[in-house]
Structure formats: structure tokens, C-alpha cells
Amino acid sequence: MGTRRRSRELALQFLYQFDTLSETSQNAVDIAAGSPSPDEELELFWEEHGDRVQGEMRDFASTLIQGTCANLAHIDGVITSYSENWRLSRMSKIDRNILRVALYELVYLSGIPPAVTINEAVELGKRFGTEESGSFINGILDKIRLAKENGELLE
User: Is it true that the peptide bond before 36 is cis, omega within 30 degrees of 0?
Assistant: First the structure.
């Protein structure tokens, strides 16, 4: 398994755990609005993984996690705008957090081709989500990709 794919899996794992913790402690989906802080939780997450995750893998995962958390309000707004008839709270936690990480990559990270980002997100959905996750994720991310390419991405 490639370093970046494993980094994306780690980012998904962290965001899923943090989303669950925040939802339980505050009964809310918006993980950006409450405590515990993502930085505190990330520190504990890396302590838990110890020496198994180092170097480029940890660096890229940290970039994805911190960037997604820092821009979560915007990311969730874009996902909501492009996911017809789906509120974030109705999406599975896996699908919701795969979309969050992938959207962060699409919008905030240059140098990663959109097709790679979308393919990686679809593969994560197939591996960790339901039978429908891959096509659900692909549909939303492809709409966002097209809007970005056409300069029409809703902010």
C-alpha cells in the first residue's frame, strides 16, 4: 500500500474518531465548533500510533487532518451545496469524512491531480463504507471537481 493511501486512511480514521467523540459529547455533527480541540486529539492519536507511523506518511496525514479541521465550515458548506437532498447528519460518518478529506485535497492542495483524489476517495469508500459509498462519493466529488474547473465552485 502506498504512503499517501495509508496517510488518507489515517486521516479518515482520525476524523471518524473525532467526529464520533464530538457527536457523543455535544450531539452535533459539526466537529469544528466544539471541544475537545483537534490539536489535542491529534497529539493523542499520534501517541497511540507510536513509531508505526513516521516520516512522509505522518506528515501527509497531519496535513490532511489539520487542513480539514481548520477549513471544516467551508468544506461542509460545499459538500452540502453539492449533495442534493443529503444533509451531513444523514450521511454515514465514513462517507462524510471521506468527502471532507477529499474536498480538502481538491480545494486546498495543489499538485494532486483531481482524478487521483477522487479515485482515492472512492477506493476508501469501497473499502470502509457500504456498497453504495463509492458511487455516492464519486458523484458528489465529480460535481465539485467540475464546478471548480469551471470557476463555479460555491463558497
Answer: yes
Distance of alpha carbon 4 from the chain centroid: 14
pTM of the model: 0.86
Say which CATH number the domain at 53 has. 1.10.940.10
Question: Which residue in 108, 46, 100, 48 sits closest to 76, CA to CA?
Answer: 100
Task: State the residue range of the domain holding 133.
Answer: 3-149
pLDDT tens-place string over residues 17-58: 888 877 665 544 444 444 557 777 887 877 787 677 678 888
Could you give the CA distance from residue 113 to residue 67 in angstroms, rounded to a whole number? 18
Instruction: Identify the sign of the CA torsion 133, 102, 99, 35.
Output: positive
H helices present in 84-113, as ranges: 93-108
Cα–Cα distance for residue pair 89/28, rounded to 1 Å: 8
